[in-house]
Structure formats: structure tokens, C-alpha cells
Design goal:
By secondary structure, this protein is mainly β. It has one domain. It has one helix and five strands. Strands 4-3-2-1-5 form a five-stranded antiparallel β-sheet. 16% of the residues are buried.
């Protein structure tokens, strides 16, 4: 993805399905199972490299 961060579901080349969101004024992401039902990682700070390798997910998996 290019530009500023935005909340939502994305697919990442290495991390698979991720959810990007703003928490306490900081952008973070969390890896999820393929169906979006279960978090499989802890929240991590979102950096420009992770964002650059992300694409909008084909589905909306809900609030996470």
C-alpha cells in the first residue's frame, strides 16, 4: 500500500492476513488466521515496510 495508514484488513506477503488499527494514537497490526477468526500474534507497531507490502484483503472480517 502507498500513502497514509488506514484501518482495516490486509494481506501481507510474509504475515498473511493482518488487521491494521490505531491504538492509543499509534498504528499497530496483528496477524490473524486465514478466516480472520483468531489472532495468531500479539499487536506489533506498524512500519512503512510492512505497510508497503500489504494489499487490501478481499473480504471484511469484522472488528477482529
Amino acid at each position: 500500500m502507498d500513502g497514509t495508514y488506514s484501518e482495516g484488513w490486509f494481506t501481507h506477503a510474509n504475515h498473511g492476513l493482518i488487521r491494521v488499527f490505531n491504538k492509543g494514537g499509534e498504528w499497530v497490526y496483528q496477524c490473524y488466521s486465514q478466516n480472520g477468526q483468531k489472532a495468531v500474534s500479539k499487536e506489533r507497531p506498524l512500519d512503512s515496510w510492512t505497510w508497503a507490502l500489504s494489499e487490501a484483503a478481499p473480504n471484511d472480517y469484522g472488528p477482529g
